[in-house]
Structure formats: structure tokens, C-alpha cells
Amino acid sequence: MPRAGLSTAAVVEAALALVDEQGAAALTLAAVAARTGVATPSLYKHVRSLDALQQLVSAAVTEQFAGVLERAAAGRAGADALRAVAAAYRAYARDLPGRYPFAQRVPDPTDPAHVTAGERAVGAIFAVLRGYGVEGEAAVDATRMLRSTLHGFVSLELAGGFGLPRSVDRSFDRLVDGADAALRAWPT
After folding, report:
1. Which residues touch 69 (CB under 8 Å, ≥6 apart)?
2. 152-182 confidence digits (pLDDT tens)
3. 75 with 21: CB under 8 angstroms?
């Protein structure tokens, strides 16, 4: 019988707390079981596997991340929207480095809430691109460029990969300037 008060939602909350404290790599069923005070096999009453738990964590994180991007883009257009979304993207990764990798996972097509959260996150990027006149199929390519650019920068930053003696903030500003120039010249 499941432990009183333990639910799938409680397991996901415990997993989120774990990755917040110890990073994404620390997410194991054994670690979540210990955190929730149950034996590892007891978790299978709430999640079917580690991959399923990772997908649930990803759904929760993607929902949160989408909200951050939407709020950053709201009421802005063009370079202003790009700068706000890029800054929010970077701040999320820096503030929640354990959660950030889960925002990069492809939504589970069998989880409508996860799919909707993923669509909202991409929708925030599409809103930025509309300010540049980039829509339709061209927006897919531009989204991939922008996401790759931001993800690459924040991933290197989180890993301590910037050792040259120049302000990382200044380099990020130049990266966003470059993305702005690319989007202004984007072929449609």
C-alpha cells in the first residue's frame, strides 16, 4: 500500500527539490525514495521508471520555463523582446541549473500538459520572431538557431567553460547582438 500522503505529485516535488539541491545527475529513484521516506520499489506505485519520472519532472520544469519566457516576451517586439527573452532564458538556467536540463527534453506526446507547456515555450520564441517578420517554416529554422545559440552559451557558462579574461556578461550581450543581426537578415 502506498505511504499516506505520497502521490505522483509529491514524488515529482521531491525530485524537483533533489535536482535543485544536487543537480540533474542526482535524480535517481533511490534518491527520491530516500527523500520521501519509502523503499525504492514503493515509488513504482507512483512512477513506472526513472525515465517516466524524468519525463514528469520535465513536464513540470517546461511549464515553469514557458511561463518565464512568456512573461519576458509579453508586450515587447523585435530586439527588445529578443533581449528580454534571452536574459530570462539565461537567468533561468543560472538560477535553477538542476532544473534547466529538463527544460530541454522533448515533451512526451502522451502527456497533453507536457505538450502544451512545450508549445507555450516555443510560442514565446515564435512571438519574438514575429517581431522580425519571421514566420511559418522560416520560424522553425530561426527557433532552432536561437535555441541552440542560447543553450550553447548557458551550458558552457554553467560548466565553467569561459576562462578568458573578458566579462561573460559582455560576451552574452554580443551574442544577443549577433542573434538580433541574424534575425533582422533572416531569409523568409
Report:
1. 85, 88, 89, 120, 121, 124, 125
2. 999 999 999 999 999 999 999 999 999 999 9
3. no
Report the C-alpha gap between 18 and 28 in whole angstroms.
9
Sequence-distant (6+) residues with CB within 8 A of 84 are: 72, 73, 76
CA distance 87 to 77: 15
C-alpha cell at 111: 502527456
pLDDT in tens, 67-81: 999 999 999 999 999
pLDDT for position 3: 53
pTM over 0.85: yes
